[in-house]
Write a structure and sequence with these properties.
Elements: H1 9-20, H2 29-36, H3 44-67, H4 71-91, H5 100-116, E1 124-130, E2 133-140, E3 157-161, H6 170-181, E4 185-189, H7 212-225, E5 233-237, E6 240-244
Parallel strand pairs: 3-4, 3-5
Antiparallel strand pairs: 1-2, 2-4, 5-6
Helix pairs in contact: 3-4, 4-5
């Protein structure tokens, strides 16, 4: 059994998620461990304060890298800052300043969106028509066998649904990165009312998750425009696969 660091279940869950995200470069183990060492058990004020401060520092590193024309280093720093602002935001409602939830959420999304522009191949922001509204998402192009530029020719694709309230970066961690490494295109999407900008009015979460098949069909044109011409489509959300065609 893995030894616990926190007695609080929520803190322990977040700690393990942060450490696990290092596998895909969304956090750094050293940065996380040093920060956790300053956070007492179940002290949400300390959690938000320390991870927001870490996000500030790492975003500053990204700015320095951009100014020095080091886009890869800037991208990796922005991805880490995104994760740190996200965990600070998610814990902010339990503190004395609940308004930090939105402010920190905005910073996490800003870091993510800036990082996606520095991916190789670049990531595209997409909007997918769905029942009178639009699903926001990102299109990740499969990498070429040489690791530079998008792969060409027909490609299978995976549609990743982030589910509830996780940060947008979760779908890069939970399948997007693995897909593009293996020659698949990947599309992440967010259902109405899940993980969207807190200040924006959003439709309610659809009652039937199986409706993801409609979103899958709607992605066909978009995927073809991205050069995929996919013959195989898989759909996934945390907790299980929605379906495959």
């Amino acid at each position: 059994m893995v030894k616990r660091f926190y007695d609080d279940d929520g803190f322990e869950f977040d700690r393990l998620n942060l450490l696990g995200a290092a596998y895909r470069g969304l956090t750094d183990v050293g940065e996380v461990l040093m920060t956790l060492d300053r956070i007492p058990n179940a002290d949400m004020e300390a959690w938000v304060r320390e991870f927001a401060a870490l996000g500030d520092r790492v975003q500053g590193l990204a700015e320095s890298c951009m100014a020095a024309h080091h886009p890869t280093s800037a991208r990796t720093a922005l991805l880490r800052a995104c994760s740190y602002f996200a965990t600070a935001s998610s814990n902010a409602p339990g503190t004395s300043d609940r308004d930090r939830f939105q402010r920190l959420w905005e910073r996490h999304r800003d870091c993510w969106d800036r990082a996606t522009k520095l991916f190789e191949p670049p990531v595209e922001s997409v909007r997918i028509p769905f029942e009178g509204t639009e699903l926001q998402g990102y299109f990740f192009h499969a990498r070429s066998p040489h690791g530079h530029g998008p792969a060409t020719g027909p490609r299978p694709k995976v549609i990743l649904n982030n589910g509830s309230d996780g940060p947008v970066s979760d779908m890069w961690l939970f399948g997007g990165a693995a897909a593009v490494e293996r020659g698949w295109n990947a599309v992440t999407l967010r259902w109405p009312g899940t993980g969207c900008r807190p200040s924006s009015p959003t439709p309610v979460f659809p009652a039937r998750l199986g409706e993801g098949r409609h979103a899958g069909r709607g992605l066909g044109t978009r995927a073809a425009r991205g050069g995929s011409g996919a013959h195989r489509v898989a759909r996934h959300q945390p907790g299980g696969v929605l379906g495959a065609t």
